[in-house]
């Protein structure tokens, strides 16, 4: 989320040289991201998480069906 990887920099043509301080900052940012995500997930109740899971599954199924229909593969 908050870190640019060395591989990504190399792909963009940058010379990736990270100092110890840079790596420490990236680790701290990663730890903060994980902490915030964990706190936000705790606040959501179980019923809301289940509803979001069902919505995601329905959305995925719809996208797959639309993709199949676009190439002419209709369900039987």
What does this entry show, briefly?
By secondary structure, the chain is mostly helical.
What does this structure look like?
The protein is mainly alpha-helical and 76 residues long. It has one domain (6-70). It is 72% helix and 0% strand. It has helices at residues 6-11, 20-43, 46-70.
Q: What oligomeric assembly is this protein in?
A: single chain
Major β-sheet, in short?
Answer: none
Query: How would you spell out the order of helices and strands?
Result: HHH
What share of residues is helical?
over 70%
List keywords for this structure.
76 residues; 0% strand; flat
Task: Describe the protein's topology.
Elements: H1 6-11, H2 20-43, H3 46-70
């Amino acid at each position: 989320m908050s870190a640019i990887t060395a591989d990504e920099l190399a792909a963009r043509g940058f010379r990736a040289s990270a100092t110890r301080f840079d790596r420490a900052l990236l680790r701290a940012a990663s730890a903060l991201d994980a902490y915030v995500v964990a706190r936000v997930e705790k606040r959501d109740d179980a019923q809301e998480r289940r509803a979001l899971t069902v919505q995601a599954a329905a959305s995925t199924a719809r996208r797959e069906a639309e993709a199949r229909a676009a190439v002419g593969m209709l369900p039987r």
